[in-house]
Each structure stands twice: as C-alpha cells, then as structure tokens.
Amino acid sequence: MKKLLSATIFSAVLLASCGTLQAPSINQAASIQPQATGFTVQGDQILDPSGQPFTVKGMSVAYQTFIFNGQNHGGYDRANFKYLDQMLDDLKARGVNLARIFVTQPIVSRTASWNGGKGYLTMLDEVVSKVNARGMVALVTNSYRSFSSTDLNFVSTLASRFKNNPLVWLTPMNEPNCAGNTYSETKCENWAVWKKEQNQYIQTIRNAGFTGPILINSIRYSWDLTQVLNPTYKLSDPLNRLIYGAHRYGNENETWDADQAADADALWANLASTVPVVLDEVGADNGEGEFDTPFVNSLQWADGFMQYVSQWIMNRGGDGVIGFTSYTSDGNTIYQDAGYITGNVPQPVLPLKLTRWGEIFFSRHPFL
C-alpha cells in the first residue's frame, strides 16, 4: 500500500515435525540442499510438503505490532497482539491457511514495555508459533526500510531464525523503494535497481540456511510484474523457490471494469500460467490520494475486484490471495472496531464481527 500504517490445512503430524527439521550448514548459496519436507515450487505451482498444489488463502495479522516507522499506532500495535488468538481462531475457521506478518529492522533490539519488557523478536517467535499451531504458514514480511547493509543483516537474522521451520516463508521487502518513508522517485519503478537489490536479498537468505519459499514484491508498489521473466531482470535463486506477489487497490475507481481487468491481466494475472503468482496484498483503503488525485476507496470496487480474483484463482492458475488486514483503524480492517472502551488500547467488537470489507473478502472466495 502507498501509505504507512491463505487449500491445505496441515495435520498434527506435520506440525509435530517442525521442531526436528534441520537445514544444512552452508557457506555459499549454490551449495544449498533443499529440505525434503518443505514447500517447493514447480513450474507455475506452489507445492505443499506432501507434494500437492497449495493455494494461498491468507490474511495479514499482528499488523503494526512489529512496525517501527515513526508513527504513533494509537494502541493498535498492542491490540493486534492482545487479540491475536481470537483472530487466528476465526481466520482458521474461515479456511485461512497463511498469515502475513509485517516486521521492521528495529525489532532486533527493541523491547515492549507494555509486555513486561519482552523483546520484539521473542514476540515474533510467539506469533509465528501461534500461526503454525493452527496449521497456517507464517509469511514474515520485511517492510518500511530502504535497502542497506543493516537491512540485509536483518533479513539474514530472520532467515537464520526460521531456517528450520517449514511453515515459514519470507518476503525480503514489501513494496521495495516505494512504500511509505522508503519512497524513491529514482528507484520505485527501476527494474535494474530492483534486480540488484532482490538478488542480494535472495543470496543473503539462502546463505543463512533458509530453504523455504521467498515471496518477492516488485516495482511500482508491486503492481507491476511485467519484467520478472525478462532475461535482463530475471532473479536468481539456487533453489528455484520464488513466488511473485502482486498488489492492488481501488484508489480513484468507483467500480471494477473491463479496462482495469485488462490492465491487471497484463501487469500480473497472465503471468500465473508461467510462475507462481499470489495477490499478496489487497485492501479496501489506500489513503486519501496522491498527485492531486483523491482516492474513493470504494467497496463496490472491492466487490468487483474480488470476483475477478476468485475467477483468476479457480480458472487461470492464480496461486492465491492475502487480504489486508485483520484489525486496524481504517477501512482495511476486516474486523469491526469497538474503539477505546477502556484505557488507551482499542479492541475489536467481541465476539469478532466482519466489516463489509471482511464480508466481501470472504464471500468472494468459493475456494475457501
């Protein structure tokens, strides 16, 4: 998104095995040997640990909890952590099989005074464990940082931390050089820069011993995947386990129409017949607007678009979709917000109730 701010449920046997899987010790990415029991990529499909096609049915969770970007989250960072169990239980009941978790580099050293001084990395471990305990993949998504050696070190930390967990995927950077405070006019739409940075992320992840899938975001807020197979810009992964993530919002459009469908087809949807493509972010609210263009953030648009997405997944090889987001203060929340009932930490309506956006997201998923 431009502003700051999920087919298979695995058995208890697989979950019990998570703690015993060992990734190889390596010095160079080229020497990595794949884990036999992890997720793989074959052609245009994602395969689960049993070798069956896996369709992502996802939702972002714990949004804001691990994001340090200078914003005051208004207590929603704490609320997302506090009510995580209720949300995950509800999402599992709705068929969700993947949870996307945004993280930022400062969690390496930060502690949560509101949670007994616990370190944020330890809290991330807890969130991942809760996600995995419900048979869901945890997609840990680095975000809101410009490319740097510090950021590469952080990605290496994540990769090393989760290298033995077959139910963790990584995104090295959400909307690289575009999102929020990372926006660069010279880099946001630059394929050459994108290739250089993403290849370094991939090498860093593989050198740390992580062998699971890597979900890659692209240029233009990840709206554009047109050049990912161009030999000039094609990325290199020694394990061939890359998944590509597309993003889409309604912005100034009141409705979803044929022209927009043709645009999405050309930008990313048609690519799903060749490589795995997941719509890894779609929401109902992309802010007030940009470049003097006010955004409508129309729910009518969202309804039409989700119908398109559903057909893309069922009939055209799309590999899934991830909604944005479980709980927040704006129009992207899928759970109704009760606000500040007591104190300075908000809470969702309990028992949990879907917003209209939440109803649209789930009602347009015949495969859920």
TrEMBL record:
One of its GO terms (biological process) is polysaccharide catabolic process. Residues 48-309 form the Glycoside hydrolase family domain. It comes from Deinococcus cellulosilyticus (strain DSM 18568 / NBRC 106333 / KACC 11606 / 5516J-15). The lineage of its organism: Bacteria, Thermotogati, Deinococcota, Deinococci, Deinococcales. Belongs to the glycosyl hydrolase 5 (cellulase A) family. It comes from the Bacteria. One of its GO terms (molecular function) is hydrolase activity, hydrolyzing O-glycosyl compounds. Keywords: Glycosidase, Hydrolase, Signal. This is Glycoside hydrolase family 5 domain-containing protein. Residues 1-22 form the signal peptide. Pfam families: Cellulase.
